Amino acid sequence: MGNNMTSENIIRKEELQKLTDSVIRMQKDFDTVQIALKKLIDKEIQELESEDQYWNKQAEMQNE
């Protein structure tokens, strides 16, 4: 029985290590997605600000 428990413990240890490795990979993937999403949002904000500046200048020129 002791030998069987040792085999089960080894298998369980390997499963836990695989789970840990999987979580680490998922975290890296999440970080990649988070960075990409932030870049897209920052780009969209920059485009909106540029568009606002353009229309503000157009309005100023019409008021002159």
Describe the structure.
The N and C termini lie far apart (94 Å). The model has no long low-confidence stretch (mean pLDDT 94). This protein has 64 residues and is mostly helical. The radius of gyration is 28 Å and the shape is rod-shaped. It has one helix at residues 2-63. Helices cover 97% and strands 0% of the residues.
Topology:
Blueprint: H1 2-63
What integer value in Å does the Rg equal? 28 Å
Please report the total strand number as a whole number: 0
Major beta-sheet overview: none
Measured by DSSP, the beta-strand proportion falls in under 5%
Distance between the termini: 94 Å
Q: If you average the pLDDT, what whole number results?
A: 94
List keywords for this structure.
64 residues, mainly alpha, 1 helix, 97% helix
Q: Summary?
A:
97% of the residues lie in helices and 0% in strands. It has one helix at 2-63.
